[in-house]
Amino acid sequence: MSTSSSQQSTLHFVLPSVAVLGTCLAPAILVAVARRPGSPLGEEARNTVAKPLSLLSLLIILLCCVFLLSNYSVSNLYLFAVYSLLLALANLLADRLVRQKVWPFLAVWHFFNLLNLFGGGVSLLQPYRSGTEGLIPTIFKISGQFGGECPTGTFKVDWCDDAWIAFQMIVAFIFVALHIAAFFIVLYRCVPMAGPSPAREEAAASLVDSSEVANSAAGAQPF
User: Membrane-spanning regions, if any (predicted)?
Assistant: First the structure.
């Protein structure tokens, strides 16, 4: 059994535990702060869960805890969770504010975060990254370059367990799928900003029809 210093225990166990606790409390604090005056907290929570984007964001926040329980000195897995947590909280806030102009900015953020989850080098299309690999390859290489068995005995590494890494990889696949679904929801909400709404188009068409009827009644020739 390997021995750990107080610094290693803090980095490998205390900080991950505090990070998970803060992650679980973050959406509750956000809902409590941003709720309408006089509205019960229980009703606000039910309204949040009833919205598809907010529900996906809550699931993403919950799954972030799996990646926060890792060895911060061995891999950058925790960074994927941190970036995704911030984006999910922004989703919750945007869903509550119902501001149309915020969706394009949020869609761009989702696009950048997907690039980070998929992996790749730094470029103009990827202003930040958690590593050269994506989320799943990062988990795969925790135990070594070729994903071998985790060391045991005196060479044991904290949070490096074959069963735990396999579980993280399964969760990572679901995690990426949830991000893709959230991206398309945000993208769909940007569609009305790309052109006039159907109501405006119908109003414009009715005005054209009315002008043609008036011209016909006056004996004018249509253009």
Answer: 12-33, 53-71, 77-94, 106-125, 165-188
